[in-house]
Amino acid sequence: LGWRAPLITGATVYGVWGLIWLIAWLVLRGSIDAGAYPPRASSPYRLPYPGGESAWVVQGNNSSFNHEDREEHAWDFRRRCGTPVLAARDGTVRAVTDSNSGHGSGRPNNSVEVTHSDGTVARYLHIAQDSAVVTVGDRVRQGDRLASVGNVGNSLTGHIHFVVESGGRSMPVTFRDVEEDSGIPRTFDS
Predict the structure, then answer these.
(1) For 103-129, how does the pLDDT look when each residue is reduced to its tens digit (9 = 90+)?
(2) Three-class secondary structure of residue 153 per DSSP
(3) DSSP-assigned letter for residue 15
(4) Are 181 and 53 in contact (CB under 8 A)?
(5) d(Cα 89, Cα 68) in Å, to the nearest integer?
């Protein structure tokens, strides 16, 4: 093999790495029927982190991994732990849990829930322990800080799990500040 050994080893490593990413993309991407989403121009939602910043969408809508059924229209926005989680829409805080720590399967989660004027509820999960700056009953405006990003509960890395629900079921929403793909964030995109 001689001088070819490093080339063969490198090609094998890159091939395996590419296969891992392909499998992850196929499992996490989910299918999106853009016609089921409201028009971006009339959306009351903005992304739940500061404008001008980007976040990688680790897992998007209807992923076969664990965004099914109640979580069908949820997103996982990869963010550095400690960065702000912002209100995506005006509303009233209805629940706050930020006393849990640790991450992994079966670990308890932290979250902030905000009820909107139309009765829908936005849920922000995996927030850092003791980071909530709001309490139940607080009125929040779009862009107000709710908490900090954490890696708590069923989580592998710091991220914001964001979902809007109506009647206990997730609903499709678009974001005014996402200009491409009709305002629908896509998995493995930022």
Answers:
(1) 988 899 999 999 999 999 999 999 999
(2) strand
(3) H
(4) no
(5) 24
Q: Over the Cα atoms of the chain, what is R_g?
A: 18
Instruction: Say whether 149 sits in a helix, a strand or coil.
Output: strand
Structure tokens at 130: 């003791």
Q: Is there a contact between 57 and 189 (Cβ–Cβ < 8 Å)?
A: yes
103 DSSP assignment: B
> pLDDT category, 80, cuts 50, 70, 90?
very high
* E strand segments, 24-182: 56-59, 75-78, 84-86, 91-97, 111-115, 121-125, 139-140, 145-148, 159-166, 169-170
Mean pLDDT in residue range 52-81: 79
Identify residue 70 by its one-letter amino acid code.
Answer: R
**Average per-residue pLDDT for the chain:** 86
Distance linking the first and last C-alpha atoms of the chain: 42
- Which token pair is 110? 């932290």
Range scoring the smallest mean pLDDT among 28-42, 47-61, 107-121, 148-162: 28-42
Cα–Cα dist 63/10, whole Å: 32
| Tokens standing for residue 101 | 């720590």
| pLDDT at 4 (0 to 100) | 66
Question: In angstroms, how far apart are the furthest CA atoms of the chain?
Answer: 70
For range 155-184, the mean pLDDT: 92
- The answer to whether the Cα torsion of 166, 163, 88, 131 is positive or negative is positive
